[in-house]
Amino acid sequence: MNKELHLDLSLFPKELNLILLIVRSRKEQDLVHALHKEELEDFDWGLFLELARHHRLFPLLYTKIRKVDPSVIPAYVIDYLRKDYQANTFKMLTLCSEMDQIFRLFSQASIRCLSLKGPVLAADLYGDLSLRTSGDLDLLIPLADLDQAEELLVEAGYEKMEAPDMTLNDWKWRHHHVTFYHAAKKMTLEIHWRLSPGPGKEPDFDFLWARRRCSSVTQEPVYYLGREDLFLFLTAHGARHGWSRLRWLMDISLLVHQELDSKALIYLLKQNGQLHTGAQALVLASELLRTPIPDGLRKTTSHKRAWQLAEEALFYLRRMVNLHNKPVPEDVSKYHKGHLFSLMSGQQKILFVLSFLYPYPEDIAIVKLPKSLHFLYFPLRPVLWMWRKTKKPAIS
Q1: Between vectors from CA 234 to CA 218 and to CA 300, what angle results, nearest 5°?
Q2: pTM, whole model, 2 decimals?
């Protein structure tokens, strides 16, 4: 990596800088010494707590500062973090129990399943379920088993909440998951058939299944991604969300500390057009969390594009952007669309542009044709697109 290159972190609020200081500390004595050197007068502890929750780092922060002198960090701040930490521990144990039941349910039906995040990721990367947050369960299954999985989940009390319009076959490659919710358990479950939304290349399920690992966090065997496949997934996911939450970057930092096969990882990233997003993640982890880059991966971070993409991601951190809260502010939405396009490889950009020629479910809302005539939506696509842009009424 070029030692002369550095990201511009000058516009970060001091409250965010303190969070970064705490989470990247390795020893308690070093942290205490560093905190005493910080200028914490006129410090906005309310903003500090808001940032801790936004970035989902409060469990890690609490475990690092719970013994710090109240004269340095106010007792009420540590108390707030403690309550959030305890609530998260209970949540993770609940998710663990539900994951055990879902994997048993799918196993009995011979549905292969891989856990993408959740308790398994917490145990693997952090060594402790309580140190990482997770709001739901994300499971990957073969597309061919999606209908059977839905039937099983509905029988178990789940209701399908968010799902793509399946009138046209575009949902299979444009989208990547469907959301289920269990009202009694207050449990959200996302069933994925792709790692990321398309169009774009990614490993198929059989490839990922052959390289799977097995977790021991539950009684039922729970399978999850191999290390290099996990890096591919986590970097694609984090990049797609602008790395707007530091928890995703912390995952990368801890994963890099494990024994990654650098040659295999670089080949995997190249094969799937994600070498630049992997390099972006490494640059951000190095600059923000002081993560040492393995020798075998250092060359990937020397490219100018990796640094440009990393600099673009700082927009989300400076403004505490939350892409999950709808509606997203117009200026943020516009920036995000541009950033998503800049993340694409050349091949992905071509596929993305060509995908506009494929009919959208919105086209059906304008011109309602019987299923036998759905093929006409292809030649009509440019006309229907212009029709929607002019906000004209639907055609019966």
Answers
A1: 140
A2: 0.91
Report how far apart the first and last C-alpha atoms of the chain are (Å, whole number): 60
Domains and CATH numbers, the chain: 98-321+329-352 (3.30.460.40), 359-389 (no CATH)
SS3 content of the chain, % helix, strand, coil (to 5): 60, 10, 35
How far apart CA 71 and CA 50 sit, in angstroms, is 21
Q: How many CB atoms lie within 10 A of CB 165?
A: 14
Which of 135-144, 168-177, 250-259 is least confident?
A: 168-177
Beta-bridge partners for 139: 115, 191
Q: What's the whole-number mean pLDDT along residues 189-215?
A: 95
Which residues make Cβ contacts (< 8 Å) with residue 88, sequence separation at least 6?
58, 59, 130, 133
Average per-residue pLDDT in the chain? Answer: 91
Write the single-letter amino acid at 167.
T
At 1 the pLDDT is 45
Residues 168, 359 contacting (CB under 8 angstroms):
yes
For 202, how many CA atoms within 13 A lie in the half-sphere containing its CB? 24
In the numeric block, which tokens belong to residue 323?
């892409």
Q: Which amino acid is at 378?
A: F
